[in-house]
Amino acid sequence: MDEYSRELSKLFECLMEVLSRDLGLESENSLNESVGGEGKELQLRINYYPPCPQPDLVVGVAAHSDPNAITILLPDQIPGLQIRKDGAWIDVQFVPGALVVNIGDQFEILSNGKYSSMSTGAWCTKTSQGCHGLCFAVPRVIW
């Protein structure tokens, strides 16, 4: 798990460098610093969706936008992950070995609206179980 966390942290920093360049910021490290820099924490979560005999009556993860800057998601091959685009829910297609990167509310604010946070949700299926791994980078809170 330590190696996986280190690699996710590197990926997060790489994404923030690319996005900093795209926004024309003076430093490639600007966005990474704005979300905690070296002091940021990675939070990992795994969502498990068991088969459900009546999936139309259950919500796996209700529609929401992520409050953090960026979410890195490792989906599985079971359908259920969706994004909302132009008022319609669209299934996220599984691509073996690919990660899904969601822009969150914090990054929408940091980019002054150039990038938009999106609504996502995950729905249960009748016959298949699913599992998604998620990684959030958040500033470290010191009390």
UniProtKB/TrEMBL annotation:
**Stretches assigned to the Fe2OG dioxygenase domain:** 40-143
**Name of the protein this chain belongs to:** Fe2OG dioxygenase domain-containing protein
Origin species, per record, is: Picea sitchensis (Sitka spruce)
PANTHER family, A to Z: OXOGLUTARATE/IRON-DEPENDENT DIOXYGENASE
Per UniProt, the keywords (alphabetical) are: Iron, Metal-binding
**Molecular function as annotated in GO:** metal ion binding
**Signal peptide range:** none
